[in-house]
Every structure is written in structure tokens, then in C-alpha cells.
Amino acid sequence: MKKHVILIGFMGAGKTTIGKRLSRKLGVSLLDTDRLIEEEENTTISRIFETKGEEAFRQAETRMLKTLAKCEDKAVISVGGGLPMREENRKILKETGTVVYLRVQPDTVLKRLKGDTARPLLQGGDAQKKVRTLLNDREALYQEAAHITVDVDDKTVGQIAAEIEGMLTP
Ligand code: S3P
Questions:
Q1: Radius of gyration of the chain from Cα atoms?
Q2: Would the pTM count as exceeding 0.90?
């Protein structure tokens, strides 16, 4: 098995929740790029978008990914939904671990993120349209970045974690 297990996928796919369960099952740490960026900058993702702009956030993501790629101990790494959109990041992801794409349907995202205010890309306007358009634009790149795809709709966290564990070849 490659050193790390990396979870990618759209907002609301369950990367953090599944990452927590999977890391416990595997007995390794969970490293989450969003949380680590927030800790590093001592503020929220929303504030970073507001004060520095999306591009600055994307640069912070690539910087954080490069740091995590050097991590010696095996870990589960959960990355922000937009991180695999950069070609440079996709290359690092593939080299750094087994990349698992948690594929989610737009309706599930909308149900899960109803009322969410922490994701700047989904604020204001027609959320349904935003989710559908973004997911549609991103789908091919998620596929390109991943070694494994797991559909997450209508499954429990335990089922998904077990499915991923079963696909990780020793
Ligand atoms: C983003 C996803 C978010 C966060 C930021 C941008 C995206 O992470 O990185 O709001 O571009 O899809 P989650 O996927 O963990 O919600």
C-alpha cells in the first residue's frame, strides 16, 4: 500500500467524517488541509476568502499539501474540495498516497449542506445551480486525480470506511 490514504471529493461528500472513522480503523492520524490552514492562519476559511481572496487560499492549499506530502508517518489525509482542481496538486496527490474519490450526488450535497455558512463558494444565489455546475465542472478532474472511486450516497460512514479499507491493497 502507498504510504498515505488521501480522501478527495466535493463539499459535503463526508471527507472529514469518513477520514475520522478510517484513520481510527487504521490506527493512524487524520490530517485535514482545511483545518491545518485555519490553524496556521489562525482564522476561518471564510475569512481567508473574504480578506485575501480565493487565489491566496489556493496557494495556501498547495503549500500545505507539499508540507503534508513530506510527512513521515502514515496518515489519512483529507483535502478541501477544490484542491484537486490544480494540476500541480493532482500530481502531488497521486505520488503521495492512495487517492480515494468520495463521489457524491448533488441532491445529497444540498441536503447535507442546507443552511451551511462555512463554505464561501456556496453562499448567496441559487445553491442548487451552484452545486450542480461546480460538481459537473469538477467530476472529470476528481476522476483523474483518484486511484479509487467510492459512491457515498445512501451508505453509512461505517460502510464507506469498510469499503475503502477493503480496497486498500497491502
Ligand atoms: C472548497 C471546499 C471546502 C474549502 C473551501 C473551498 C471547494 O472544503 O476548502 O471552502 O472549492 O470545494 P470541504 O470540501 O471540506 O468543504
A1: 15
A2: yes
- Residue 132 DSSP one-character state: H
Find where cell 489525509 sits. Answer: 77
Question: What pairing do the DSSP bridges indicate for beta strands 75-78 and 29-32?
Answer: parallel
Residue of the CA atom closest to atom 4 of ligand 1: 80
Residue 67, SS3 per DSSP = helix
Could you give the percent of the chain with pLDDT greater than 90? Answer: 92
Judge contact between 46 and 122, C-beta under 8 A. no
- Which residue do the cell numbers 471564510 mark? 46
pLDDT tens profile 130-151: 999 999 999 999 999 999 999 9
Name the residue of 34, 64, 136 whose CB sits within 8 Å of the most ligand 1 atoms, as the mutation to test its pocket. Answer: 34
Cα 91 from Cα 144, distance rounded (Å) = 10
**Closest ligand 1 atom to the C-alpha of 33?**
9
Angle subtended at Cα 86 by Cα 169 and Cα 9, rounded to the nearest 5 degrees = 50
User: Which residue's CA is the nearest one to ligand 1's atom 10?
Assistant: 119
* Helices and strands, number each (H, E), in the chain: 8, 5
In the sheet with 29-32, reading across from the earlier edge strand, the strands are: 29-32, 75-78, 4-8, 97-103, 148-151
